[in-house]
Amino acid sequence: MPMFSLGNAKLSIPVILAPMSGISSYPFRALNRGFGCEFAFTEMIDSHSLCRLTRRTLEMLTITPADSPLGIQLVGKDAKYVLEAMDVLRKYKYDILDLNAACPVRKVASKGQGASLLKDPKKLQELLGQMVKHSDVPVTAKIRLGFSDAKNAVDIALSVQDAGVSAVTVHGRTAKQGYTGSVDYQAIRKIKKALNIPVVGSGDVFTAELAKKMFDETGCDLVALARGALGNPWIFKEVWEYLKKGKTAPKPDASEVINVMKKHLDLYIDFWGETRGVVRFRTFVVWYTRGFDNIRPLRNIMSTAKTRQHMFELIDQLRDRTRINCDPQLLRQEP
Questions:
Q1: Which letter, b or e, does each residue of 275-304 get, where b requires 16 or more Cβ atoms within 10 Å of its Cβ?
Q2: Is 157 helix (H, G, I), strand (E, B) or coil?
Q3: DSSP letter string over 26-66?
Q4: Between the N and C ends of the chain, which has fewer C-beta atoms within 10 Å?
């Protein structure tokens, strides 16, 4: 069986779970690991908040031995706070430390963090270089093609490599594009050809076919799944089967969706308690129920459920509904 490398982690499938803010909690990672996800990241953690040891940040760092191999992603712009945050992390067991230089969201970029770091590649390189020297684990970075345009995409990637990182994840859009427009596969391909470290392709991997397209058109070493895994933990096995056999796996039927939704909900309740667990789970209802006919009225009721029993009763109503395959273009849309 072939092995794929990311830092010191050895993987049997070249597919990882990307960090997603507000999503990649411990129970979410645990659910996906049960469906073939080998490597996962925590959600993006603000280095300044980690230095202050806020309750929310420490909750994000819930890790168990089974939650491995694991990457922790930091966001920050000041070496002082990033390095201090790394000191806090020394008591945790994880495999890769990633710096987010890709988040285009205003509340992050307006602080000079995330994708704003792409405006000054030299500063980004210096920050990453200090992280590499200070870290006990391999350091990686997630970038976009640029902030407002992609003309310096290869140069940015080379400067990141020169900082000493072990791998780079490239989202095939600029920060200005956000999540609109098309992924530029050729730009990722140029980066892959220019670098001698592993490149992880990212962007619009919603299906097994789109994962193969990312590999074929970019030559990347691994693919990161983000929005494609929302309400769709089956995608890890689907991608690997499609890469090996070229066959598209049948989509799970209503009964399987129901069973997984209940398992997901119970994981959330076990972690956060019933009230908070149900409320957090409601975020996933739209993603799980895409493709079901006449689903909006039921979704609206689910969005108000507050107890496990009520949510279970509503989930069971999916048995009477037809589920069809979703158009990948619909999966791109935010709920």
A1: eebbebbbebbbebbbbbeebeebbeebee
A2: helix
A3: HHHHHHHHTTT--EEEPPPEEHHHHHTT-HHHHHHT---TT
A4: N
Query: In this structure, which topology does domain 254-320 adopt according to CATH?
Result: 1.10.1200
Count CA within 13 A, CB hemisphere, residue 220: 30
- Are the C-beta atoms of 61 and 42 separated by less than 8 Å? yes
Q: Does domain 4-245 sit in CATH 3.40.228.10? A: no
What string of pLDDT tens digits covers the 335 residues of the chain? Answer: 457 999 999 999 999 999 999 999 999 999 999 999 999 999 999 999 999 988 889 999 999 999 999 999 999 999 999 999 999 999 999 999 999 999 999 999 999 999 999 999 999 999 999 999 999 999 999 999 999 999 999 999 999 999 999 999 999 999 999 999 999 999 999 999 999 999 999 999 999 999 999 999 999 999 999 999 999 999 999 999 999 988 888 889 999 999 999 999 999 999 999 999 999 999 999 999 998 988 999 999 999 999 999 999 999 999 988 776 555 445 554 43
Query: Residue 54: which residues within 8 A CB-CB, separation 6 or more?
Result: none
Q: With helix as H, strand as E and coil as C, how does 214-281 read? A: HHHHHCCCEEEECHHHCCCCCHHHHHHHHHHHCCCCCCCCHHHHHHHHHHHHHHHHHHHCHHHHHHHH
Q: If you ran DSSP here, which 8-state letter would residue 137 be given?
A: S
* 279 closest CA partner among 301, 307, 258, 260: 307
Q: Which is the catalytic residue, given 37, 51, 103, 220?
A: 103
* Sequence spans of domains, the chain: 4-245, 254-320
Q: How far is CA 195 from CA 152, 199, 217, in A?
A: 14, 8, 16
Q: Which of 119, 108, 128 is nearest to 48 (CA)?
A: 108
Q: Cβ contacts of residue 315 below 8 Å, gap of 6+?
A: 258, 261, 262, 265, 302
Asked if 157 and 188 touch (Cβ cutoff 8 Å), the reply is no
Q: Mark whether 103 is an active-site residue.
A: yes
